[in-house]
Amino acid sequence: MGGMRAIEDRPTPKEIFGYDSAFVGTTIARASFKKDFGITKATAAGISSNITSAFQAGAFFGALFCYFLTERVGRKWALQVNVIMFIVGAILMTVATHQLSFIYAGRVLTGLGCGAITATVPSYIAELSVPSIRGILTGLFEIAYQVGSVIGFWVNYGINKNMNVKSSLSWRIPMAIQLIPAAILLAGGFFLHESPLWLMRKGRESEAKEALVQLRHLPVEHQYLQEDVQDMQARLNEEAAIAARYGTGSFAFIRGCFSELSLPGMRNRVILVFCAFALQNLSGASAINYYSPTLFGSLGVEDISLYTGIYGLVKAIASIIYYIFFIDMLGRRNPVLVSSVACSLCLWFVGAYVKIGHPATEIAAGVPLSASTAAGGRAAIGMIMIYSIFWSFGLNGIPWIVSAEIFPGSLRVLTGTYAALCQWLVQFVMTKALPYIFSSFGYGTWFFFAAWMLVATIWTFFFMPETKGLTVDQMDALFGYQSYANADDAEIGVSNKQDIDSMGKDGATTIEHVERK
């Protein structure tokens, strides 16, 4: 399990929406869903686009505004509020009869909840856990996402095989299953402790120490617990130094972060994170998840739910193996290079097959596929599976890892939110546009994603450095950064923080190093 240590503090948006990404495409493509909501062939593309992208739009704004909620009420209760919002949205979608407005509202609410959770939970885990298991706990997010994705694909397969697909239950059941993990998370949330760092930030030091006593199972006078308190004070001192030029409080800190992130050596990191997430969503993986019936149908696949289930299972197994055994060995840059080249080649092959064989057209016309076309279809499906394996150790998780480790600990409260915003924004654009891209490009959709994977290869070669194992100082040197913060700023910042004892430069460096490692 040691391999997971490389991905600690990674703001992975996985805990609920792994299932969403797998079930929604097949569910809204069902004949029963279209019949109940009056969806025609002429309106299908637009409605499918709206339903799918409403989740991403909600997630974007959930991630955007959750910072203020967590600063106001704390990590624990912000988590609970957002889970309740998700549950309300899932209920709306489940009970809808013929009102698309219920579906849209439900998608937005579930998106708001998930988006906020993506920007809350990773920091929450980092603040509750000890460094030795922090990476393992955060690494479980990737596994949880993949498990949710597999469940989503295979739920649809089970419905197709064992239920009347013309019944309304065939789309209500997948909608309702969302409530199961959400209810478990809500119930478990009441047993969580508040973040000690948040309590310290609010001047509630005695409560922070009490929380640490319960979390660490150590007496308050124990050296390890005292070091935890000192580390948190050092972190708050750094945040105070960033806010110092603009006063005190959350808005001063935000302004200080923006000022810091606009400096040479920081803004190139900001651009790198956006490009990484943009290329992640232009890789085609999320498109296959959300629109698997359309894309697998273009290959001439008849039992679409079976092959999407296999696709999800292969992707899950590959991701789990990579994040458990190989993440620490292979670094960041080289896996993305190899993965992007391999994924591009696979997609070029698939697009060429659809262009030459026209399998979906022949099946729709009732014409049996020729032996060569059928063999080509099997090869194309094999390429999709190979694609899923290579994608699992490239742009699948590397953008999250890089976005977490290239910024100093004092900025990660906001940079983690920024990473989530990049993810949701680009994914919204892609899920909104894909039905129109597919209807306009046809087989060219596969070439579209293949070309972007070539762009990802070139971008990685020239612009993505290797960041594995670097300290904060090494990262600053790599990106050419020099902080504007000087001793006067630090003194102002510390004086503006109540109940925080002054700590030396060595203490601040120590907490940065502990968080990174």
TrEMBL record:
Chief localization: membrane
A GO CC term attached to the entry: membrane
Pfam families named among the record's database cross-references: Sugar_tr (PF00083)
Membrane topology: Multi-pass membrane protein
GO molecular function: carbohydrate:proton symporter activity
Subcellular location: Membrane
Keyword set, alphabetical order: Membrane, Transmembrane, Transmembrane helix, Transport
Membrane-spanning residues: 51-70, 77-96, 102-125, 137-159, 171-192, 270-292, 304-324, 336-354, 374-394, 406-426, 446-465
Annotated signal sequence range: none
Limits of the Major facilitator superfamily (MFS) profile domain: 6-468
Superkingdom as given in the UniProt entry: Eukaryota
Keyword NAD applies: no
Keyword Transmembrane recorded: yes
InterPro entries: MFS_dom (IPR020846), MFS_sugar_transport-like (IPR005828), MFS_Sugar_Transporters (IPR050360), MFS_trans_sf (IPR036259), Sugar/inositol_transpt (IPR003663), Sugar_transporter_CS (IPR005829)
Family per similarity comment: Belongs to the major facilitator superfamily. Sugar transporter (TC 2.A.1.1) family.
Name this polypeptide is given: General substrate transporter
Organism: Aureobasidium namibiae CBS 147.97
Origin organism lineage: Eukaryota, Fungi, Dikarya, Ascomycota, Pezizomycotina
